[in-house]
Amino acid sequence: MKDNKVVLGSCDGHVYCLSLSSGRLQWSLKTAAAVLGNPQISGDTVYIGGSDHQFRAIDLKTGSVLWQYTGMEGPVVSTPVLYKGMVIFGAWDRHLRALDASTGKLIWQWNNGSAVRNYSPASCIPVIWDDVVYIVAPDRFITAIDVRSGTTLWRNNDATVRESIGISADGQYVYGKTMTDTTVAYHTSPSKQPAAWKLNCGFGYEHVPSMLIERDGLVFFGTKNGTVYAIDPQKRERRWAHKIDNSMVNTVRALRAGQIIASTMDGKITLLDMQPAIMHTN
Predict the structure, then answer these.
(1) pTM above the 0.85 mark?
(2) Per-residue pLDDT tens over the stretch 177-201
(3) Is the CB of residue 45 less than 8 Å from the CB of residue 60?
(4) One CATH from 2.60.120.10, 1.20.1440.230, 3.40.50.300, 2.40.128.630 for 1-121
(5) Residue 217: which residues within 8 A CB-CB, separation 6 or more?
């Protein structure tokens, strides 16, 4: 969302731009397959990947394609990250890539060395701190990558994190969510790190790539069973858990007014107070 415009991809193979105030269509761009990736907007440029194995930079004002990268063998379903003139994203072809944000030229690509496509870093949204990119993937490793060269700095599977990742507000910790009950934190560092702490949150078996979002001293995330959790990373305790639905919760969004908004896979949207969890609308 920017300049009273909302940009989104659709399963019908289009990227749409709508007016936030009126809901009217501003422009649409047809692609060759479903667009399941989320957009990232910088200035007047929209960056988004699709299931046609292409990644595009689109003019926000006109909807025209500025450049497109076609060197992939799998779809893009996550949100790209912009950092120091690069756009960084994963795809279901085993690779994490960094492209020049202005030209679309490939700067580097990384993979974990496995031929298993299901281990691709495709569902997580990378987090970056001090020139280090952090990702998690279904191989249950957390990986730190040099943002300038794309080389592996370290990998660790001591906590078996999967596809959920986040970063603390001060950039000192990377958060992860395991497949059974536990959230974990690692110090951000170019040298290999063990888990700094682990917290049993009691959410059971879990596999949803919902990012962990820190705001106002709490960390929020959703789960496959329709529950939003809040943990206190300083006290290392679960603050609350609030069930909003029976389907998967997408990455929550923290609002400025002490509220978070959460959506589920069945199309439900819920507004919650951060402290305590009070449902306002659904």
Answers:
(1) yes
(2) 999 999 999 999 999 999 999 999 9
(3) yes
(4) 2.40.128.630
(5) 232, 233, 234
